[in-house]
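User: Fold both of these, please.

Assistant: Here is the first one.
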Amino acid sequence: MKFSLFTLATVASTASAFTSSFTKTTPVAAGVANSDSALFMKYKVAVVGGGPAGACAAEIFAQEKGIDTILFERKLDNAKPCGGAIPLCMVGEFDLPETVVDRKVRKMNLISPTGVEVDIGDTLKPDEYIGMCRREILDKYIRDRAFEYGAECVNGLVTSIDVPEDHKTSESQYTINYQEYQEGSSAGVPKTMNVDLIVGADGANSRVAKAMDAGLYNFAIAFQERIKIPDDKMAFYEEMAEMYVGDDVSPDFYGWVFPKYDHVGVGTGTVLNRPAIKQYQKAIRDRAGDKIAGGKIIKVEAHPIPEHYRPRRVQGRIALVGDAAGYVTKCSGEGIYFAAKSGRMAAEEIVALMDGGKKLPTQGDIERTYIAKYDKAYGPTYAVLDALQKVFYSNNGAREAFVELCNSKYVQQVTFDSYLYKRVQGNNPLDDIKLLGETIGCLIKGYATAKPDAEFSNPIESQKRI
């Protein structure tokens, strides 16, 4: 799902590695024996997974001359299931060009269970927008940047990782077992590679997480159809995205119609009733109705989405980022920005700890830097969105209240500021007090007017963890 970069060592450094493996000499010590840089053996870092998290991590590692960077990705041309929304701050922060952004969404149409519609976006400035992208375009762009810095790619699937028992207290290497794919062949060639440090960016079903015993987490199933609709209907979605709420489209999330390059992505997701996902998908198509009528389904996608952090995100010299770590927000289901940010942050902290490739970090080092800084920066965001989802996606009454609240310009401004820039700004205490009163009033009204949710038993399938 994600990819890693592979750099071949020189003949001299290979000899150095061979020697150090028998003498227990570190690569730095081996380099001291001869000042010739050709004899300096680099530490080898593997990034498993080539999506935004892995690509951004590889880009940072590849710029460090004291580190060999290997990026594993099983499908370099893969169109990954994803809504594709990115915040404005990501465009600037990660230096993304216009060619990566298919559509600039400036309006969001929010539709309640009873069909009440609220258009939000009036508070946006002329140069503000939500970017809509295709993952196959975005991922490739960031990967290619990493390659330009010297990262090398292994087009292969990591099948397992051999973790030495003493990896937390020694510099023992990890052995990555993988299937490498040759051009023109679908059959993989079994291979192995020894590395000093691993960044797991291989998604919700992470094999790196399994190898390091990261623990299980609950997950949603997201289902999306890419639908090519007539040009006259596509014009409606030029700068418009839609969100539908109601127990018909999801008992605990929302359905969406997001514009892409020349089509729309229509989808939904659920944790509570995963076996019924196709039923919910039909409902979102029905709710969109005439706006997508006459469209042709050109691609069907489904994928697990983590619902919370992994219990363990670092073990020894293995660190998780992106979906593999559980970095997807509740309520909005956003993951691209947090994947890219966590990949970059983890790599930057690890590079600093390695001091130019002179030493390897410990588990404690990585936890005190990358994990602590990420949690401090974004932990409150996850907590707030988790609470909002529990309140406003729990039943149709709450969903009606949610849509009505979004009529408030204050709510719109705070929401867009938080999403576009990953910070809450301009909050007014008096407006916050007024908003609390409005929320209570909307909830009372919503519960009084909404139809009851359809009952269903929580299937065993929905209680599984990965």
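And the second sequence with its predicted structure:
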Amino acid sequence: MSAEPGAGAAGGIGAGLLAVGGRYQSGAAIIAEHTHFADDLADAELIVTGEGRFDVVTLHGKVVGAIAAAARPLAIPVIVLAGQVSLDKSALRSAGIMAALSIAEYAGSVRLALADAANQLMGLASQVAARLGNSGPSGYR
């Protein structure tokens, strides 16, 4: 049972739920269904999304990974704003992500980013918007 997808989630609660007849469902898929993500995606020219820590785990089962996977066949550019980013450009490109920007890097450190997270995020988002406004998505290619 421990090899089942989701069995180790939340400290093993997933395994307990599977043992009593529960089933695994992707949280990202549930969110996409209930927010009608596919309908909105059809009209999108660019997606900007976020994550606390953007790493390889994010690409497998988390919302950001699901967004990138859905956007890729439609050639919709995806930009990720995250507290920290630990993926290189090759991994980003493989996942169909145009750019991933770190709030901690923008702020100068994790400590500074956490001390004023809202303003640091707004500053980074403003920088992204300005760059996109000057050159469109090609500014990140």
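The helical segments are 9-19, 27-35, 37-41, 63-71, 89-95, 103-107, 110-115, 117-135.
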